[in-house]
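Researcher: Quick test of sequence recovery. Tokens follow.
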């Protein structure tokens, strides 16, 4: 994956639309990472701030660095002020992901008008909580005390205000930044509006051909269908280009036949979240994997790639087949995309109201239940449960790191929803 270097916190404003895939207009966005200019190289080849070199290896903290799977949290402010519950979910994410340098941006049509709204007051309250969370996370270590940062910008149609330096810049000043140039060179072109996220079905001919292939594959042995999924998973891991994955109707039919068998489905979902190198599906034991990996951060890049494949399978699936929607919802929940979880689970239930997996995931999204690795932070980076308050609190989403533009994780949100990781929704 590629790493985009930010020489100044404001450079994040040039990168955010490319990570989201569109230009935010009414959002709070939190970009996490370490955007220092001078960097060293860590023991695993990761880039680290220069001051790491002066620390003994035993003193070097675990820091979420730019270019890693760090969150880009997006909150849609059209849903109203950020609630205390959503603010707590965001600060929990900052702690769980050990973010070190943060860039907070409010996108609005007019800075002057926004400064007199309840939404603005809620953003200021959130920033106080974020600074307190960063202080608790890093100020206890002499090597990182006062080294963390949280920069705040407000951007409107004319330009952006650096609230720390109290300076206003026109958008033209960002066009020549190294980060923006690198993304444009890669062919990234953010949309003017947020794209649709619901599944748009394929043509009747392609759906009919997929249905024929599915019926033919129903008689295949588990081993043959597992080998087919071995091939598809390897393709997901190798894939680097943006856009929906290419898959033939015959491949889609055989893939759906595998998903319809629960033991194969469970293996696919487990492997989609693992960091380990791919193994033949025949050697995977989902019971062991789910038991040992429940509290670990999933492989967000792989999970997002699989979600793209599952969404393409959902497009091609014949009428009455809800399993790719439900599986996509499951992976979305594990990477922290609660609004996407709710959407895909609802789409699955509209096809098959009896789907227990889809019903469970829809309930989880409605109750703002986050995956174990993102449920609050204790000392040492462990997670603790945050009980959902009653009432309409919104939801938090996290989009996983997408490998089409950059390795920084990304989060999008819809009204009353927030996303934490990947391409892509107040609620991360």
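Model:
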């Amino acid at each position: 994956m590629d790493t985009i270097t930010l020489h100044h916190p404001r450079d994040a404003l040039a990168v955010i639309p490319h990570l989201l895939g569109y230009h935010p207009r009414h959002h709070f966005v939190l970009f996490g990472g370490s955007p220092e200019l001078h960097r060293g190289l860590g023991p695993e080849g990761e880039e680290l701030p220069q001051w790491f070199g002066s620390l003994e290896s035993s003193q070097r903290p675990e820091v979420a660095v730019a270019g890693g799977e760090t969150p880009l949290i997006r909150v849609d402010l059209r849903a109203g002020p950020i609630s205390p519950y959503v603010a707590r979910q965001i600060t929990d994410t900052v702690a769980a992901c050990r973010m070190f340098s943060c860039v907070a941006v409010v996108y609005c049509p007019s800075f002057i008008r926004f400064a007199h709204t309840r939404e603005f007051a809620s953003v200021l309250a959130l920033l106080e909580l974020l600074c307190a969370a960063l202080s608790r996370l890093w100020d206890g270590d002499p090597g990182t005390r006062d080294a963390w940062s949280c920069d705040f910008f407000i951007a409107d149609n004319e330009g952006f205000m650096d609230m720390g330096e109290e300076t206003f810049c026109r958008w033209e000043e960002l066009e020549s930044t190294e980060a923006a140039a690198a993304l444009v060179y890669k062919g990234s072109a953010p949309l003017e509006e947020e794209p649709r996220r619901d599944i748009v079905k394929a043509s009747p001919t392609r759906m009919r051909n997929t249905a024929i292939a599915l019926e033919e594959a129903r008689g295949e042995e588990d081993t043959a269908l597992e080998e087919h999924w071995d091939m598809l998973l390897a393709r997901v891991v190798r894939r680097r280009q943006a856009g929906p994955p290419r898959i033939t109707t015959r491949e889609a039919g055989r893939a759906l036949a595998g998903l319809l068998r629960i033991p194969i489905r469970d293996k696919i979902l487990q492997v989609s979240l693992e960091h380990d190198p791919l193994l033949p599906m025949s050697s995977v034991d989902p019971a062991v994997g789910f038991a040992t990996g429940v509290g670990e951060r999933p492989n967000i890049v792989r999970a997002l790639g699989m979600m793209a494949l599952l969404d393409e399978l959902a497009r091609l699936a014949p009428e009455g087949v809800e399993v790719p929607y439900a599986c996509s919802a499951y992976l979305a929940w594990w990477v922290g995309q609660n609004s996407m979880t709710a959407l895909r689970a609802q789409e699955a239930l509209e096809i098959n109201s009896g789907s227990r997996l889809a019903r469970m995931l829809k309930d989880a999204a409605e109750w703002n239940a986050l995956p174990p690795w993102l449920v609050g932070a204790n000392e040492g980076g462990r997670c603790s449960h945050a009980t959902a308050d009653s009432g309409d609190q919104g939801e938090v989403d996290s989009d996983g790191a997408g490998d089409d533009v950059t390795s920084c994780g990304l989060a999008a949100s819809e009204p009353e929803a927030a996303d934490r990781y990947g391409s892509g929704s107040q609620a991360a």
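The chain has two domains: 4-40+59-186, 204-367.
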